[in-house]
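Just wondering, does anyone understand these tokens?
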Amino acid sequence: MIKKLTLLSLVLIMLLLILSPAVSIAAPQDSGSIMVTNSTAAMDFPLALNFAAHINSTINITDVRLRYKIDQLSFADVISEGFVAVKPISTVNAVYKLDLKKVGGLPPGARLTYWWQVKDASGSHLESAPTEFQVNDNRYKWQTLQEGKISLFWYEGDNAFSRALMSTAQAALVQLQKDTGAVPDKDIYIYIYPNSEALQGSMIYPNEWTGGVAFTQYSIIAIGISSGNLTWGQGAMTHELTHNVINQVTYNPYSDLPVWLNEGLAMHSEGPLSSQFTVPLSAAVASGKLFSVRSLCSPFSAYPDKAVLSYAESASLVEFLISQYGAEKMLKLLNTFKQGSTYDEAFQSVYGLDIESLNVKWNTWVVLQHGASRAK
């Protein structure tokens, strides 16, 4: 599962924050020119982030704003702003509550920079020094394991549990580089909750089936893995890790990857398909009812049976491209998408195929793989 904000959604978020309410408590004092002291930020995870500061001036303060910038992949320098309601007075204990429900939540490990902007009745203004803040799920006592570009955080399970997950992550990076040439250029942070319920409790409005999330714009993964379900967890973590790396490699301001390519690479990284996917794929091949590659470029169906087949076909498509054309061309394809190419332009440039031609060649290949006589 991927969470990715578009530029439009970031702008809408900024507008919501500008309009969001805030409160302040004033206490009259006279302490000289404009000064901002005791600036703090406190996490009420996952619901809110509370900011506070003591502000005073020799002239009545008329305008107080909390400004902040979230550290995430973006081609726009988005600064959000929250207004603090004040009456003209020389000293203000400013308080601003960032309601995270309005921004869809922030994952553990996300970072932001914040500062205060203050004006007085004379028109003078002050911006306080920027302060960095890291979002933490402070309900738990986290342990940390770091190796290369991977940092792993967990709070239940022994060292053997964390080492097994780290070994899986490192092996996944090696295999991904071998299959596609893709390597991460930024650190990736993985937060392990002990089950899906705990994971969902760390999110705003999660889906009831959510077991793992790749917050690709933050290079963060959050996933629910119990020590008794380690095998599933290792596969799921590999899946989400692939999403993060592929996003780093292809990130551009123009377009995303075809859904089947993004999900297919993540499925391919997990290893051979289980019967959950091979059985419906074989049935679709035998009956000539495969989805077209063009249709798989768009988001998958919400119906479980159709979604499973879409994932199975996506993995098969990636296997076809890598086995028949090699890892070098896959990396070239990813780099082509990074330049903002359309789907047809990218595949035509790298493989000499548009989407329809790819569909024909893959259909022929997958029929042979599954021993069927025809596929449409």
About this structure: Residues 159-180 form the longest helix (22 residues). The mean pLDDT is 90. The first strand starts at residue 2 and ends at 3. The chain has eleven helices and 14 strands.
